[in-house]
Design brief:
homodimer; 6 helices; globular
Chain lengths: 158, 158
């Protein structure tokens, strides 16, 4: 198990380095392992694909879910070259792998110019006080979709 | 401006309700507006597309970015039927719209069975103490991708 563990970390760091060398995007890679097998990999493709959500972890999760044809990665482990940003951490919670492992921390990312810590700090503020402010516009029937959801018999929970 | 503002909120709530009525997925919708025009919409397609990242906001951001062929939504506003979860809030920070507006809060989402608050609470914990634990595996050259990135002359920052 330890050998495999180090193998995946090594592989994910190499994925990240290759992504830089090959000029595809940022220095990040990720992979999802199930039962000792890689079932999805991802690298950062934000600039190449004009997609700010195309982080390595998001791409690896999406690839693994397509492979399994499931939105649920229970029993899987996620390996990533760097501690996940809040977006990717949120994605991890929705995908529900067993655990995740990273090869360096967000401090290293910040030193390299990727300031995820800024976003982590913003999460602690009230929406209206954030650098990108969020405003709740109430009294316009905003709960209506939830009422419809509650009344729907046939639905797939997630 | 106020009229448009209410119009977008109305439209995004209707997107969310229609998604439930048409059996596609969860009760969430989002849209991105630039210069008074909708440039991308999204609904929750987690179950339909086997993709735990396919939240309404993520899908709307991705659609708008494809339309603009840019990973940057500066100058845009994002409207969403419900306060964003941490994943979608992270995506908002990476896409950098001017602001976002939501029709109901995460408390309403929690009452409807979508417990984003749980994820927000988890973010405050150390990675190793979270329900889905994160472990840093150091001393394995984890910084190597960042070193390669720093040494790369031709790169697109994001």
């Amino acid at each position: 198990m330890n050998n495999s563990h180090e193998q995946w970390i090594h592989q994910v760091v190499e994925l990240a380095s290759a992504n830089v060398r090959e000029g595809r995007g940022g220095p990040f890679g990720a992979l999802v392992v199930k039962d000792g097998e890689v079932i999805g990999t991802g690298v950062n493709l934000v600039t190449a694909s004009h997609d700010p959500t195309a982080h390595a972890e998001i791409n690896a999760i999406r690839a693994a879910c397509q492979r399994l044809q499931s939105f649920d990665l229970s029993g899987c482990d996620l390996y990533t070259s760097c501690e996940p940003c809040p977006m990717c951490l949120g994605a991890i919670y929705w995908a529900r792998p067993r655990a995740y492992y990273f090869a360096c921390t967000r401090d290293s990312a910040a030193e390299a110019g990727f300031d995820d810590t800024f976003i982590y700090d913003e999460l602690h503020l009230k929406p209206s006080e954030r650098t990108i402010p969020g405003h709740c516009v109430t009294a316009l029937g905003g709960d209506a979709p939830f009422i419809e959801w509650a009344q729907t018999v046939q639905k797939i929970r997630y």
